[in-house]
Amino acid sequence: MCTQFKVPSVSAMAAIGRKFVLSAVPSRIASRNSCNKTFSSSSKVMAPGKVGFIGLGNMGGHMARNLIKKGHKLVVYDVSKDLVNSLKESGAAAAGSPAEVASEATKVVTMLPESAHVQTVYTGDNGIFSALQKNSLLMDCSTIDPSVSQSMAGIAEEKGSSFVDAPVSGGVNAARDALLTFMVGGPESAYKEASEYLSLMGKNVVHCGAVGTGQAAKICNNMLLGISMIGTSETMNLGMKLGLDPKLLAKILNMSSGRCWSSEVYNPCPGVLEGVPSSNDYKGGFGTALMTKDLGLAQNAATAMKSPTPMGSLAHQMYRTMTNHGYGGKDFSSAFMFLQDQKKK
Hints:
Blueprint: H1 10-18, H2 24-29, E1 37-40, E2 50-54, H3 60-69, E3 73-77, H4 81-89, E4 93-94, H5 98-104, E5 107-110, H6 115-123, E6 137-140, H7 146-158, E7 162-165, E8 168-169, H8 171-176, E9 180-185, H9 188-198, E10 202-209, H10 213-241, H11 246-253, H12 261-264, H13 288-305, H14 310-327, H15 335-342
Parallel strand pairs: 2-3, 2-5, 3-4, 5-6, 6-7, 9-10
Antiparallel strand pairs: 1-10, 8-9
Helix pairs in contact: 10-13, 10-14, 10-15, 13-14
């Protein structure tokens, strides 16, 4: 699961949730071509320089290492000293706070679990904004409330710098292999500058429009992912009860119309695929608690936009139930295990 950061009080987080307003995003999208610009990882790479990186969890650690592999000097921060030390062994320099990172680098990447963590890291005591250098570029790869991204961008602009929201898709293995997809929201000039760095950590860098539209694309993607993972888990469980070998069933699904990422690349049934969380007791990967958070963001957006999402709502309810029954720290593909456990009750 991603590294945890000290966050504001429960009442403060509740206030953050109430501030979710996505209605401004569609009007901004209308002034641009939505998700129509893609920067390929084969594009020209800029000369290496120092980059700051904050948030070294399951995804962020791999992303930071890829920047080091591509020749960049890194200054890193995380509340986990073990994760910082691991990056130091890979050649990074350690900072004592987000402010120290910002004071040493004008290009900063953040990869944090939730909106509250982003607000704390950027605006809190010893946060990024307290030591931000003019003309800095801030690239937030967290999946958060679009209104929080817009708020951070406004503060950055006041300080003479740029901010883009650049949430990612692809999972831990894609982060390790620099095959992520980045969905970027921000001005054209900031997108182009950020692409030079993001393309070192991923395969696709897509411009979605103004700040906040990257988050809009990501929460739509993760709503579909949550739904499809539950569907794949139900299918694998039913097929096994009907006497089918799970590897054979997965093979048939993946050559048929039921094929999807959850069945082919990230199958939730233990033993079907190697190198995925389901074959490692659901350790690592993308935590159930984080999927629950993302589905909550999607539901908030759906309510604000008056867009019916019955399947998204049901998926959110199931992942909330899983989190409340001890699955929060396991990979979200543990939906399969959760369904199996139900037959024991």
